[in-house]
UniProtKB/TrEMBL annotation, chain B:
Its cofactor is FAD. One of its GO terms (molecular function) is FAD binding. This is FAD-binding oxidoreductase. It comes from Pararhodobacter aggregans. Keywords: FAD, Flavoprotein, Oxidoreductase.
Length: 377, 477
């Protein structure tokens, strides 16, 4: 689609955004940075959030940050780095994988519930998200949660909004709890393990008390564990892990700088950037993942100790038809718009769940104007 | 506190409703003898009591589905119940409601260390979940002080927390999946032993929904390997403000303790008299616990000692043994019991931004004097979750009302400084009418729309969470 031929709305305040949605008589395609064209292709007028930008509140001593939804992620990460803090969940950058340009925004990150390797220990984006403001499909402004770390006042719409891909409301402001950035980090690396051994290694590592906060196995048969923290503690834990997991073969331990670049590659699925084909994202019970990949074919990058599989397959292959029922779910992340029209990017739901999902959409967006059908099976 | 008037129509059909329940369930699973239903007349908020129409104690998800299907057809409200330890009146019945208790559903269904989860029936108590995996070196992290008694069912419904949540998160961060029975008897599986939802995050919505969206019968919980060791320190200060500033500095320094607990002078005095933990007689104290190997613990505690030193502590007591660690925790753990000895008390649960601690504590002191009731503070300081305990005398006419009025003022204060009404206990009936302080009508409407989807007839625990005026038209329809 030629961007010149479609209408673009770019509200500068929450009130303007609400007005735009209230007045909409046809579908809107919600766009943050435009870096994640995931889901059923959208044809509506573009509604851009980029002008709703800026950090509203940052309190390092309380480990909390509040910012407008169109704020570039890079701006937030820079502000946090200046205070030696970070977002706990290590959000991925989709640009390399999806071959898009643009600036990822906080709103897009939350709407995608984008979480990276540290998810095994620190939780997902939704686990660090403590408050939201959004405009629903009727143009009504709603707030939920707040800026405090513990909050059970009323229903948790914060979690509902995370990962809803702009189909229930357009986020205007988001609040996070943060973590101190660690003093040091190390990666323990094994080479040449087959996927079954690598998965066993990762399962054993995650059972130890040494706080492994990332565990991945790459297509080139490198298996990686990461520890972070105070320097002496990192050295101690890396050592203990290498010793305890020696039966899997000899390992080498890499320092903080190599650790940072290596895990950025895992996080952003770098091995698939220059490779053709569709890319699927599969959440699965870790111990099932090797068998699942064997059945699916294709090339796999295992993250989250095997709980997340990035799978590269030929274009247009219906993975779900190949796999049948399995303990988890598969989402088609990278594919042509054509493929995303005939293979559902998001996993189909059992009827009772689908009814709840439909019910929620009908309540939050009764006219079906927000990214309509984006998550449909 | 008001509750809706029970439906005369339902009360009139009592005998036939009970008979139909009996036809569905084993004989010992239906309780309607007025002497026995008294056992279900209240939860941990004992100031409010009302026996239910009947109580049912199913053993399987199928029985739960049958009960709900029947109550749905009969239009009878259902109040789910775990162990009945809610401090918010979440499990308080109305006279026309059926209590559905899951206490008999307490089996461990599956433990899986390779994938680090346990699947249990939700009537199982919190502590016995850890009990089931402890020998193998694992634990279930959320640890409410009531963990010996409270059930996973109530933990999920209230999204409960505990002292160690600073590091490990609250229930919602440790919940992977549930079996949920909807009010019409439909059984759905949400989530499972994998991470994140494929579609909308319904699991996140159910956790903390206070028994209003469905009855949770089974849960898949994340379990964690036990740390090599843990050690607390006790730090005494000459003022609340100083202790508050120290909390902030510890957090900023990059140490991530598992717990930072705070007690003020009234609380220290009362627990000392009760538990003799040997606490120093000071204005405020912190208990900070860190984990790891001995060397790691030493390093973290060294850093904490340095930070504390900048705040002129009147005492810095580092545990040297298991024995001493227990002693440091003893006072904190018996704080509620100690209060119960000297008085009736109401436990508030508002959360505030950590930076507001000094100001809020000062203002609570002023309010306490204005209302003429003592307030003791003991709380999770690391995450700003306050627990002011208001002491009153239930036998003195008017004291409960004064206590509730003071409580409302304190919670309004929490909201005013950027916090919320409840950090871990839930809204229930206790904070129901204060919801308008924190939320605009549109915010509450958005939440009520969620209930419309899961329970269109508003039969599940209907008189909770939302101010009665706000939910009236929905409950009536
Ligand atoms: C290369 C490319 C080609 C495209 N081709 C087409 C096309 O052919 N036809 C077409 O219709 N569209 C097209 N789009 C637009 C795109 O598919 C959709 O607009 C949308 O699905 C992706 O939005 P985004 O990339 O801005 O998402 P991001 O900003 O990366 O956000 C990710 C997700 O979050 C949602 N989101 C972002 N910010 C918010 C917020 N504040 N609140 C709530 N939700 C939010 C987005 O809608 C999206 O679903 C294209 C985009 C790109 C980059
Ligand atoms: C001394 C004491 C200390 C406490 N300390 C803490 C603490 O540190 N942290 C904390 O968070 N809380 C604490 N609490 C509060 C209380 O223990 C928790 O809220 C607990 O999770 C309630 O669990 P329960 O099984 O007793 O639930 P109940 O009291 O039986 O019910 C609580 C709520 O859950 C709903 N519910 C029950 N079962 C189900 C089900 N199967 N499906 C759906 N909904 C259901 C009920 O309807 C009700 O709304 C404390 C309470 C006491 C008395």
């Amino acid at each position: 689609m030629n961007p010149d031929t479609i209408a673009v709305l770019r509200p500068e305040t929450e009130a303007e955004l609400a007005e735009a949605i209230r007045l909409a008589s046809a579908p809107l395609a919600i766009r943050g940075g435009g870096t994640r064209p995931v889901g059923r292709p959208q044809t509506g007028a573009l509604l851009e959030t980029g002008a709703l930008s800026g950090i509203t509140l940052y309190e390092p001593g309380a480990l909390t940050l509040v910012a407008k939804a169109g704020t570039p992620l890079a701006e937030v990460e820079a502000a946090l780095a200046a205070e030696g803090q970070r977002l706990p969940f290590e959000p991925m950058d989709h640009r390399g994988l999806l071959r898009t340009t643009g600036e990822p925004t906080l709103g897009g990150m939350v709407a995608a519930n984008a979480s990276g390797p540290r998810r095994v220990q620190a939780g997902a984006c939704r686990d660090s998200l403590i408050g939201v403001r959004f405009v629903d499909g009727t143009g009504t402004v709603v707030k939920n949660g707040g800026r405090v770390m513990k909050n059970v006042t009323g229903y948790d719409l914060v979690k509902l909004m995370a990962g809803s891909w702009g189909t229930l409301g357009v986020l205007t402001e988001v609040a996070f709890k943060l973590l101190p950035a660690p003093e040091s980090a190390a990666t323990i690396l094994w080479q040449g393990l087959d996927s079954a051994s690598a998965l066993r290694l990762m399962a054993e590592a995650l059972k130890t008390p040494w706080e492994v906060n990332a565990a991945a196995h790459l297509p080139d048969q490198r298996t990686l564990l990461r520890v972070e923290g105070f320097a002496r503690s990192v050295a101690y834990r890396a050592d203990e892990l290498a010793k305890a997991l020696a039966p899997f073969g000899r390992s080498v331990t890499l320092g903080a700088a190599e650790t940072a670049s290596l895990w950025a590659q895992v996080r952003d699925v770098a091995p698939f950037h220059d490779q053709d084909g569709d890319v699927w994202r599969i959440a699965v019970k870790p111990s099932e993942s090797a068998a699942l990949v064997a059945k699916a074919g294709g090339e796999a990058l295992y993250d989250w100790g095997g709980g997340l599989i990035w799978l590269r397959l030929g274009e247009g292959v219906d993975l779900r038809a190949r796999l049948g029922d399995f303990p988890g779910h598969a989402t088609l992340i990278r594919a042509s718009a054509e493929t995303r029209r005939h293979i559902a990017p998001f996993p189909p739901e059992p009827p009772a769940i689908a009814a709840l999902t439909r019910g929620l959409r009908a309540r939050f967006d009764p006219r079906g104007v927000l990214n309509p059908g984006l998550m449909d099976a | 506190m008001q509750m809706p008037r029970p439906s005369a129509d339902i009360l009139g059909r009592r005998a036939s409703i009970v008979a139909r329940l009996r036809a569905l369930l084993p004989a010992d699973a239906v309780i309607d003898d007025p002497h026995e239903t008294r056992a279900y007349e209240c939860d941990g908020l004992t100031a409010y009591r009302c026996p239910p129409l009947a109580a049912v104690l199913p053993r399987t998800t199928e029985e739960v589905a049958a009960i709900l299907g029947l109550c749905h057809a009969e239009g009878v409200p259902v109040v789910p119940r775990g162990a009945g330890t809610s401090l918010a009146g979440g499990a308080l019945p109305t006279a026309d409601s059926v209590i559905l208790g899951v206490a008999r559903m307490n089996a461990v269904l599956e433990t899986d260390y390779d994938n680090r989860f346990i699947r249990v029936q939700t009537g199982r108590t919190n502590l016995s979940v850890t009990g089931a995996v402890e020998a193998d070196g694992f634990f279930y992290a959320p640890d409410p002080s009531s963990q010996l008694a409270c059930a996973i069912a109530g933990n999920i419904a209230m999204n409960s927390g505990g002292a160690h949540c600073l590091k490990y998160g609250v229930t919602t961060n440790n919940l992977l999946g549930v079996t949920l029975v909807q009010m019409d008897g439909t059984v759905v599986q949400i989530g499972g032993p994998w991470m994140d939802a494929g579609g909308l995050d319904l699991l996140g919505l159910i956790c903390g929904s206070e028994g209003q969206l469905g009855v949770v019968t089974e849960a898949t919980l994340r379990i964690l390997p036990k740390p090599e060791g843990a050690r607390p320190v006790l730090i005494g200060f000459s003022a609340n403000e100083i202790a508050g500033a120290c909390v902030s500095d510890i957090i900023k320094a990059g140490v991530l303790p598992v717990a930072i607990e705070f007690m003020d002078r009234p609380c220290i005095r009362a627990t000392e008299a009760f538990a003799h933990a040997g606490y120093p007689d000071c204005e405020a104290l912190l208990i900070v616990e860190v984990e790891g190997s001995d060397a790691e613990i030493d390093e973290q505690l060294g850093l904490i000692r340095q930070i504390a030193a900048r705040h002129d502590p009147v005492e810095f007591r580092e545990s040297q043994s298991e024995e001493e660690s227990k002693k440091i925790w003893l006072g904190r753990k018996s704080a509620f019991g100690a209060m119960g000895q000297i008085n009736d008390y109401m436990c508030l649960d508002g959360t505030i931004p950590v930076s507001e601690l000094p100001r809020v504590l000062r203002r609570i002191g002023e309010l306490s004097r204005e209302y003429g009731l003592d307030v003791a503070n003991v709380f999770h300081a690391g995450d700003g979750n306050m627990h002011p305990l208001i002491l009153f005398d239930a036998n003195k006419p008017g004291d409960l009302q004064t206590c509730e009025a003071l409580g409302a003022e304190i919670l309004k204060l929490c909201v005013e400084v950027g916090g919320c009404l409840t950090g871990e206990h839930g809204v229930g009936i206790e904070k129901r009418d204060l919801m308008v302080v924190q939320f605009a009508p549109e915010d509450l409407e958005a939440q009520m729309r969620v209930k419309d989807v899961f329970d269109p007839d508003w039969l599940l625990n209907p008189a909770k969470v939302f101010p009665l005026g706000a939910s009236e038209t929905r409950r009536a329809s």
